[in-house]
């Protein structure tokens, strides 16, 4: 008789976005005349850049002719894309990444969820709190997190690193030593980031303790300040302890198009086993490549036009971020984020819980955001607004919030 993976039964229900959906649907049914503006979900709204669309059309046509048709893609991804990545994302910042250290994939969610496959189930993970839920849930499915303790909203075998106003929304080196450390900068949900010297501390810590850092840099394109590293490999020694995961979703609007990549330097080893070779084995066995047409679209993101156009999209969202930040500040809110990330993280007023503020904002301003407590217990008392809406909706949402 078959048995299931019981780890799945340990997972608490993911009520966050379904609860939000239900509350919003209920409100709309009761108030059909009200226009609800969502600054809640972390999805882009601008269409793909013209350079990307043109590359897609061209690649589609190639697929229709016998001479240019493409079947299975090379295991690591097409060389034209890996070359563009190595040149533009790394070499331009003084980092040498070899083509066979880059693994093209269908996105950062899959990679950050799957990377655990190459690590022992005995490893102890450390995560920021609040956190992008994928890291924790994926580890729970593999049996690495112990049991879920409902009263604390925490897993028994996970090291949580609180990121609150008290820590300037950055994690502090944990007291208990983790084996795997998940870091995401610029951060979803808090919109915070760390300077290079601060990230170097984590690299030094990982090298000293023999931990691996899984670095999610999905929001790298939103960095506006000098001194904030775009890649963890800008830190000395990082190739010996870090895996970097990137995505085309937020910098180029590929959330529905699907493309990302993971970098595993060959010198990253456990004893004499390189993690690069383990991931190559895993990738080759369980993944059959991102589509040719999408990899061509990804290549176009790095073209001169593509760079210019996607930069404009990021600037559009970051202008929204600035508006949200400044309007909320002017209205007396305590806000952070929104400078190197498309997320604004605000302290709920009058000691409201995250959900109380959600209800208040929905009822009084007809604006939807995301309760911070949905990202972890240290998110309680905070609230996330995204800059991914349209300019017009962002302006209107701020007008309404100011009137509360
Ligand atoms: C949006 C996001 C991603 C991107 O995931 P894709 O699967 O590439 O769309 C990865 N990590 C974080 C923290 C995100 O917010």
Describe what you observe in this structure.
The structure is a single chain. The protein is α/β, with parallel strands linked by helices. It contains 13 helices and 17 strands. It has helices at 7-10, 16-30, 50-63, 79-90, 108-114, 133-141, 196-209, 249-252, 275-286, 292-301, 304-330, 354-365, 391-402, and strands spanning 37-38, 102-105, 125-129, 148-149, 154-155, 158-162, 180-184, 212-216, 242-247, 260-263, 269-270, 273-274, 335-337, 343-347, 367-368, 370-371, 382-386. The strands form five sheets. It has a seven-stranded mixed sheet, with helices on both faces. Strands 13-14-17-16 form a four-stranded antiparallel sheet. Strands 1-15 form a two-stranded parallel sheet. Strand 7, helix 7 and strand 8 form a beta-alpha-beta unit. Helix 5 packs across helix 6 (133-141). The longest helix has 27 residues, at 304-330. The protein starts with 6 loop residues before the first helix and ends with a helix. The model has no long low-confidence stretch (mean pLDDT 97). Bound molecules: pyridoxal-5'-phosphate (PLP).
Mean model confidence by pLDDT: 97
Helical residue percent? 25-40%
Question: How large is the radius of gyration?
Answer: 21 Å
Biggest β-sheet strands, sense, barrel: 7 strands, mixed
For the terminal residues, how far apart are their CA atoms? 59 Å
């Amino acid at each position: 008789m078959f048995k299931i993976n019981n780890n799945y039964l340990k997972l608490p229900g993911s009520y966050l976005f379904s609860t939000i959906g239900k509350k919003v649907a209920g409100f709309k049914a009761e108030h059909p005349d009200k226009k609800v503006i969502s600054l809640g979900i972390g999805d882009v709204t601008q269409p793909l850049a013209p350079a990307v669309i043109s590359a897609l059309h061209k690649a589609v046509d190639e697929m229709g002719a016998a001479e240019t048709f493409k079947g299975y893609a090379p295991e690591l991804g097409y060389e034209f894309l890996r070359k563009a990545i190595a040149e533009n994302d790394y070499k331009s910042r003084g980092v040498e990444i070899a083509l066979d250290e880059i693994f093209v994939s269908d996105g950062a969610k899959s990679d950050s969820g799957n990377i655990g496959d190459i690590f022992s189930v005995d490893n102890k993970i450390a995560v920021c709190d609040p956190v992008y839920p994928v890291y924790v849930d994926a580890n729970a499915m593999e049996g690495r997190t112990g049991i879920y303790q409902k009263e604390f909203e925490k897993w028994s075998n996970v090291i949580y690193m609180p990121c609150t106003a008290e820590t300037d929304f950055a994690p502090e080196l944990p007291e208990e030593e983790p084996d795997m450390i998940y870091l995401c900068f610029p951060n979803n949900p808090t919109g915070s980031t760390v300077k290079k010297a601060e990230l170097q501390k984590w690299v030094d810590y990982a090298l000293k303790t023999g931990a691996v850092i899984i670095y999610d840099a999905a929001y790298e394109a939103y960095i506006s300040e000098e001194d904030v590293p775009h890649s963890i490999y800008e830190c000395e020694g990082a190739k010996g302890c870090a895996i970097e995961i990137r995505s085309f979703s937020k910098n180029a609007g590929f959330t529905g198009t699907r493309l990302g990549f993971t970098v595993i330097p060959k010198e990253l080893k456990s004893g004499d086993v390189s993690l690069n070779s383990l991931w190559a084995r895993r990738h080759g066995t369980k993944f059959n490549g991102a589509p040719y047409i999408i990899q061509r679209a990804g290549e176009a993101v790095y073209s001169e036009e593509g760079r210019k156009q996607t930069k404009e999209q990021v600037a559009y969202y970051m202008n929204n971020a600035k508006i949200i930040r400044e309007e909320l500040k002017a209205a007396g809110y305590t806000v952070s984020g929104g400078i190197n990330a498309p997320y604004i993280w605000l302290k709920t007023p009058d000691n409201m819980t995250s959900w109380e503020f959600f209800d208040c904002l929905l009822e009084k301003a007809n604006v939807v955001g995301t309760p911070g407590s949905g990202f972890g217990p240290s998110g309680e008392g905070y609230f996330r607004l995204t800059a991914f809406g349209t300019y017009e909706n962002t302006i209107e949402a701020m007008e309404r919030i100011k009137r509360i």
